[in-house]
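Researcher: Next sequence.
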Amino acid sequence: MAAYSSSGAPASLQSLLVCLGGLNEDRLKQLREDDEELEAFMRNTHIFQDYDNSIEAVIAENSELAEANLSHKTDLNEKRKRVLEKFNEYVTLKKTLEEKSEKYRQLSTKYSPESIQACLSEAVLQKDEESEDFAEKFLYEEISLDDFLPDYMSLRKVSHLRRLKEEKLLKQLEQLKQTGLF
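Model: Next structure:
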């Protein structure tokens, strides 16, 4: 930040005016007409030397910062590469999670107690219908008694076992509902 004099002008401008004010008119004309002489005067004036020194200091500082930044380039590139790998891993894991969540949702629906109970009910009805159809064939004498009895007993046994499983499942579901676990 520039320092200001009591007149409100920057201190460096005040110093330049004092320096120029100390020159006679011939010297001022010479500086105005001869560019090389003006440059030499400016190089020898402490104000411009301070600016040159400041500029050189800023350039040196910028160079140091640039070199420091470049020294971190390899580390930065490695970290950037690791972040990209981690992001790709995240995307893969997210996709896997979504797929498994969908599969879980489908399986939990398919194997829910209500779904199992519905399948058992359907299986009981199916075996009941098979045994009734089989009994009708026997009544219409399409099947002999020796063939009928073992097959009919087997169909009825399967039907009763399924009905027992269905009733047991319904009882267990009712108990779970009462305890608040389901």
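Model: The chain is about 85% helix and 0% strand. Residues 81-108 form one domain.
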